[in-house]
Structures are given as structure tokens and as C-alpha cells.
Amino acid sequence: MNFTQIYDLIGCAGVVLFIVGIAAVYITVWNIIYLRGVLRSFKQSFRGMENTTAERIRRAYGKSTNPLICIVRDVVTTHAAHSEDIRAEVAYLFHKNFKPVNNALTWLKLIAAVSPLLGLLGTVLGMVRVFRAIAENVSPDPTMLAAGIWTALVTTVMGLVVAIPALMAYYYLTLRIKELRIEAVEYSYRSLESARVAAKYEAEQAAA
């Protein structure tokens, strides 16, 4: 079956839905793998961020690209001195460092919202095809009518098949992001406290 035959079966709306569905799968898989890798890498690196001063954290992790490490590093080295509301600082840094993920979630939600509308568009186009065949022929070809009805029905199904998993993936990833934000707040408090204790200990050692 070549592209022309597939196009005749699903119409332009169906082709668009297929492309949109592939995009939704890519966004979902990429973000799941990325978020898991970020958390795993962060937990492995966090041992080196405990019981050390802010200056050492800055030197050791200044070039890190892991967004969670960047959040904790910036809270300990910079933002804690600007505000005592660590949750607000973490929220700002979280939005800043996880911007690609937030953008991907926006696209995923858009796909979930638009897919049923594309399916409805395919349904309307299919029914227009059927009514045109009826209007242009005194005795319409049943095969032509069936093809139009097929296009109308299959695009509706395709729209739902794309929208439902996309919406489920969006809420799953949203929950993962919320969990990571809680992790960022918790580890920021822990790192900030351990950095203060380490700085106090070094000051006492220097004074002794």
C-alpha cells in the first residue's frame, strides 16, 4: 500500500493526525528518559554536595548541566543570601532550569486538545465527500460513498487514539515534575544547612 492509497483512506486530517501522534510519542519518550536520567545523576552527585561549603560546591559543580544540581548549587551559593523563602527561590530556579521540559509539556497538552478537533475535521471532510458524491450522481457508486464514510469514521478514531494517550502522558509527566520539585526543595534545604555547618566548622578550625 503506497502513500496515495493511504491518503485516500484517511484523508489529509488523518495524515496530520499521524504526524501529530508521532510527535506526541517522541515528546513523551524523550521526557521520561530525560527526567529519569536527571534524577539518577543528581542522586549520585549529591553525596559530593553534602558536608561541604558553598564555595566548594560552586567550584565543583559550576559547570554542571544537570538542572537539579544547578538548582541546589544556585540556592546554596547565591539565592539563599537574597531571600529566606527557599521554596520561592527553588520555584524560580526550577522554572528556569526545566524550561525545555515545561515547553514540551505545553506541546503535549496542545496535541491532546487539538487531536479530537482534527478527527472532527476529518469527519466533516468525509461527510462532505459523501454528500458531494450524492449530489453529483443520480445513482451514486456505493464504493465511493463507503470510502467517504470510512474517512469520516477513521479520522474520528485516530483523533481519540492520539488524544487519550497524549493526555495521560501529559498528566504523568506533570506528576513527575511535581515530584522533582519536591526533591529540589528537600535537597536544597539539606545542602544549605550542611553548607552552613561546614562553613561554621571551618571558621572554628581557623580560629583555633
Automatic annotation (TrEMBL):
Q: Where is it chiefly localized?
A: membrane
Residue span(s) of domain MotA/TolQ/ExbB proton channel? 79-180
This protein is called MotA/TolQ/ExbB proton channel family protein
Q: Which family does it belong to?
A: Belongs to the exbB/tolQ family.
Keyword line: Cell membrane, Membrane, Protein transport, Transmembrane, Transmembrane helix, Transport
**GO cellular component terms attached to this protein's record:** plasma membrane
Membrane topology reported for the UniProt record: Multi-pass membrane protein
Pfam family of the protein (one): MotA_ExbB
- Keyword Repeat belongs to the record: no
Per its UniProt entry, which superkingdom is the organism in?
Bacteria
Q: Which residues cross the membrane?
A: 6-33, 106-128, 148-173
Xref: PANTHER family: BIOPOLYMER TRANSPORT PROTEIN EXBB, PROTEIN TOLQ
Q: Which organism is it from?
A: Parasutterella muris
The compartments listed are: Cell membrane; Membrane
List, in alphabetical order, the GO biological process terms annotated in this UniProt record: protein import
